[in-house]
């Protein structure tokens, strides 16, 4: 006999790239939840979710969806997590779980813990997977396959709730690990936020060149520049929120980067072949370690 799904009713608030990928996975496996609700502030998004047939029910009423659910996952921009959690938590059932996939933790853990009604657990989890695209058409069921999902439950969270969410993400195909909020934000500043800051800035620099030079740069862009444009095509609201929410850690990480960039520039200025080569070799080693770990 097939095992019962992990949850009876699951609501995804924000069925965009990440939310619709969870819904697709849930539809495909049947092991995540029996009944799938997609809730969003945009009727157009919900119309598309219904056309794609990736949820059993769609609604603009987040509170009604929350009241019926055993788990609610907020897949909305980082800046919207706190206000939406504040709105729906009073309606959630005892024994249910609130989660989110926000890219920055900052003070979300303690802030949301302070709002939890009796018997409701908060188990946020951040999948380290994505693309530059947004919206319900962008999702796909294998998005999380073999990627890390970082669980960041606040201290004192019921272990059964953490274990359920861990199983949930593993059934989405992800590798899982539990880390603290602060460490999460430090790691993500380096592996995700700084690279996006650089990609936006490289494209911005090219865009501000004189018209002729800009035209030719874009015309002749080979894979180096092209790879940066993929990242730079990401959603402005999502990235504005990430930069502002992880401001202090990102600025510290950027200062580190500035120092290293300055050392490379100095090596170039001084014709220091050895220093230049040594720095390039580090890059190759990092790429190889990602390939070895099946993360590239
Ligand atoms: N895109 C990625 O690569 C990626 C990866 C991991 C985590 N994340 C995080 O996941 C979250 C969602 O990102 P995405 O790329 O799936 O976004 P998306 O733009 O594809 O989808 C977000 C959805 O949230 C809805 N929404 C926005 N504000 C809302 C509100 N107040 N109430 C109800 N619905 C609301 C939007 O209408 C949209 O349908 C973000 O917090 C992001 O930082 C993104
Ligand atoms: O692959 C991409 O395009 C992404 O931007 C995914 C990415 C990342 O930077 O790695 C973006 C934000 C997330 O919070 C996690 C993953």
From TrEMBL:
A Pfam match: PDH_N
Residue ranges occupied by any Prephenate/arogenate dehydrogenase domain in the UniProt entry: 8-296
Molecular function terms, GO-annotated: NAD+ binding; prephenate dehydrogenase (NAD+) activity; prephenate dehydrogenase (NADP+) activity
Reaction equation(s) it catalyzes: prephenate + NAD(+) = 3-(4-hydroxyphenyl)pyruvate + CO2 + NADH
Main EC class the enzyme belongs to: oxidoreductase
Pathway participation: Amino-acid biosynthesis; L-tyrosine biosynthesis; (4-hydroxyphenyl)pyruvate from prephenate (NAD(+) route): step 1/1
One of the protein's GO biological processes: tyrosine biosynthetic process
InterPro entries according to UniProt: 6-PGluconate_DH-like_C_sf, NAD(P)-bd_dom_sf, PDH_C, PDH_N, Preph/Arog_dehydrog, Prephen_DH
Family statement: Belongs to the prephenate/arogenate dehydrogenase family.
Protein name: prephenate dehydrogenase
UniProt organism field: Bombella intestini
């Amino acid at each position: 006999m097939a095992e019962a799904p992990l949850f009876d009713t699951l609501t995804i608030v924000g069925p965009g790239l990440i939310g619709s990928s969870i819904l697709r996975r849930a539809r495909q496996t049947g092991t995540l939840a029996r009944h799938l609700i997609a809730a969003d502030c945009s009727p157009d998004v919900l119309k598309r979710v219904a056309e794609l047939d990736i949820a059993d029910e769609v609604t603009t009423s987040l509170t009604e969806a929350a009241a019926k659910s055993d788990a609610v996952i907020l897949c909305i921009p980082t800046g919207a997590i706190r206000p939406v959690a504040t709105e729906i938590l009073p309606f959630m059932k005892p024994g249910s779980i609130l989660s989110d996939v926000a890219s920055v933790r900052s003070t979300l853990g303690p802030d949301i813990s302070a709002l939890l009604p009796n018997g409701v657990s908060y188990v946020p989890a951040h999948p380290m997977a994505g693309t530059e695209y947004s919206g319900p058409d962008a999702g796909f069921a294998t998005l999380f396959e073999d990627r890390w999902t970082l669980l960041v439950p606040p201290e004192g969270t019921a272990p059964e709730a953490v274990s359920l969410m861990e199983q949930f993400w593993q059934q989405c195909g992800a590798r899982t690990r539990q880390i603290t909020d602060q460490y999460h934000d430090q790691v993500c500043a380096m592996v995700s936020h700084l690279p996006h800051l650089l990609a936006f800035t490289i494209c911005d620099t090219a865009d501000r060149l004189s018209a002729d030079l800009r035209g030719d740069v874009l015309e002749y862009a080979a894979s180096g520049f092209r790879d940066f444009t993929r990242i730079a095509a990401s959603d402005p609201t999502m990235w504005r929120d990430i930069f502002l929410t992880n401001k202090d850690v990102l600025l510290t990480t950027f200062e580190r980067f500035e120092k290293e960039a300055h050392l490379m520039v100095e090596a170039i200025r001084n014709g220091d072949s050895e220093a230049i080569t040594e720095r390039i070799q580090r890059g190759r080693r990092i790429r190889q370690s990602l390939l070895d770990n099946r993360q590239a």
